[in-house]
Write a structure and sequence with these properties.
By secondary structure, the protein is mostly helical. Helix content is 73%, strand content 0%. The chain is elongated, with a radius of gyration of 24 Å.
């Protein structure tokens, strides 16, 4: 077994471990009635490490076929955790396309440059990988028990009323003409209860569409925040690349290359 094969095996194993950790914790990729999205910090950390390690591999090994093997590993773990259904297979297929696009962008960035610009390579690769994973997370959220409960119950979760009460207490409470704390809490509670009932009444015809709407909303929110994950992935990826370079696992060399010129 040569050194390149060993490095490839280690890279794929790292991807598998991080994907396993992310998807197990990624069952937390769901809606919270108060905050909107509920993530667990370990899963979030595994996500950032995973995208950095993925693109680092595309920078180092420069072969598009490895995007298929890594997508297969991440996809199989996703299917094992969230279920072997057609919807999840579609999510894996979409991620595979994004992953292939990422490897292709990194390879093109390497070929078209005379001087290696590692940050640019990471940026171009991370954008596609992050969006692909966001699609999978949104598909997982679509199947979230909370969304199913909303659809069946025909009402928002009970925690939403608590949220209304907090809002009413903050904006309406100080304006109430009463010094009695108990009375003020009662009035605020009544306002929150009425608001909760009116919102449920208004949304009742649309609750059957809750899962796809909220899942798509999650994707839009995550896409809007993608720049944070991309920059975090770039930072982690650059640190990993620097460590590999310092430990002489990888190195850069100067080579003479031929270039095409246009002659008129």
């Amino acid at each position: 077994m040569n050194k390149l094969t060993t490095k490839l095996i280690i890279w794929h194993a790292g991807v598998a471990v991080l994907a396993w950790r992310m998807w197990l914790g990624g069952q937390s990729a769901k809606f919270d009635a108060v905050t909107g999205i509920d993530f667990k910090i370990p899963a979030l950390g595994a996500f950032v490490l995973l995208i950095a390690v993925l693109v680092l591999g595309y920078v180092l090994f420069q072969q598009r076929r490895w995007s298929l093997t890594t997508a297969g590993i991440i996809g199989l773990i996703f299917l094992y955790v969230f279920g072997w259904n057609w919807l999840n297979f579609v999510a894996v297929g979409i991620f595979l396309i994004f992953n292939l696009w990422s490897a292709n962008r990194v390879r093109r960035e390497i070929i078209e440059r005379k001087i290696m610009n590692i940050p640019d390579m990471f940026y171009h690769g991370l954008t596609s990988v992050v969006l692909g994973l966001f699609v999978m997370i949104s598909f997982a959220a679509y199947q979230s028990p909370l969304l199913t409960q909303i659809e069946k119950a025909g009402a928002l979760p009970g925690q939403t009323q608590t949220f209304f009460q907090q809002v009413a207490d903050k904006f309406i409470g100080p304006r109430l003409d009463t010094q009695n704390a108990a009375e003020r809490r009662y009035i605020v509670g009544q306002i929150a209860s009425q608001a909760y009932q009116q919102v449920n009444q208004f949304l009742k015809p649309y609750f059957r569409f809750a899962p796809p709407i909220l899942a798509f909303g999650l994707f839009l929110i995550l896409s809007g925040l993608s720049f944070i994950f991309i920059w975090c992935g770039m930072l982690v990826g650059m640190i990993l690349f620097w460590i590999l370079k310092k430990t002489r696992v990888v190195r850069t060399e100067e080579k003479d290359v031929k270039a095409e010129v246009l002659v008129v």
